[in-house]
Amino acid sequence: MVCRSFKFFFLQAVIITFEDFVIYIAKRWFCRRGIELKLGAADDSWVGAVFRVIGYCWVTLWATFTFPVFLDGLSAVGWSSADRGPITQFLLNEWKRRA
Hints:
The mean pLDDT is 75. The protein has one domain (6-98). The chain has helices spanning 6-32, 46-76, 86-98. By secondary structure, the chain is mainly α. Helix 1 packs antiparallel against helix 2 (46-76) and helix 2 crosses helix 3 (86-98).
């Protein structure tokens, strides 16, 4: 029961490492083709805009997928008794089924 949120925070560290690896590979791949990426800097090119949109979509997807794990820990200790909604409850049930 203790440290139920540990899985959530551990997953965040794992995914940040994975994202850094994907960014590293993308920069090398595009650099070999003559396209310079300035990810994280102010970039007004269409390539920068595409990567920014992909990044926002990825963060939203990952947060939606892992947030039920965090909510499960909060509700287990009584801090959150709000209705999770059907999507969050489905994701939480999938996490529990696979664990």
